[in-house]
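Lecture notes, unit on protein representations.

Consider one protein chain, 332 amino acids long.
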Amino acid sequence: MPAERAQLFVIDPIDRLNPARDSSVALMQAAQRAGLAVWVATPADLSAAPRPASAAAPGHGTWVAARPVSLAPMAAVDGAWQVPQPWFSLGTARQLPLEAFGQVWMRKDPPVDEAYLYATHLLELAERHGARVINRPAALRAWNEKLSSLRWSHLMAPTLVSSRVEQLAAFSAEQGEVVLKPLGGRAGQGVVFAAAAMPGLRALLELVTAMETLPVMAQAFLPGVSAGDKRILLVNGEPLGAVNRVPSGAEFRSNLAVGGQPQATELSDAERAICADLAPALRAEGLFFVGIDVIDGHLSEINVTSPTGIREVERLGGIPLADQVIARLPPA
């Protein structure tokens, strides 16, 4: 069995991760530095199978075909992470019950598709047998990263969610300029700018709503995004670090995946107030590690699936953020 407090990371295949950018890799390395054994698996490695008749709680349990991993240390030199090759090595896969691990991190990147949702159900079954899952599977399902922000709509720019072209066109006319966001998008993918006066607006709205079959989020465009979109990382509701992401060139999107440039930053009093407003709900619903996006003092999104930004905070701010996250893990 894994050593006590061993960490299991349910992720995309590890060889597809970019260790210089990926927050899951940063967390795994921090766990290793803390003396914790690190194991990896993908959602496809999860299964539900009968527990032994001798088990204290008979019935079906959740199992995982996990592999121990050893990660090479990395350092930031001249403003860039230096990645050794090879940067990881894997041990032999073993079939283990999920409750054998101190924590199970669900860090599979979106989309939140059928496979993702079924994985959360299996992880929830494991919770019933004592597994400690980060973030809580039920919350991963309930907190759509766009729609969950509406719980705090008073902190947001004017927002409409609809699949109806007439409603969206009227909202666009009222706001003048809007940003249209697919509810299942990630990393800025599919986010478009639209102006009420632009030719073809209704055709665009037909396209983004798949002919009025899918709702989209329309938000008033905030010109202040040119100064940056701030990613704030919270652990158990406490903000530990942030990075400002500034759009580059003619691009209005600031996501790092579409060319946004990261900058060191500090939190304003208003941003700390936003974090304090969200903290009780995050704690109550088992959202241990969360990234929120704030533009010009307005809450934009709440990222709960696999929040990114650790590498940039550590490199630009000199903050050992991943180590601070691991140090705050709840007791096994």
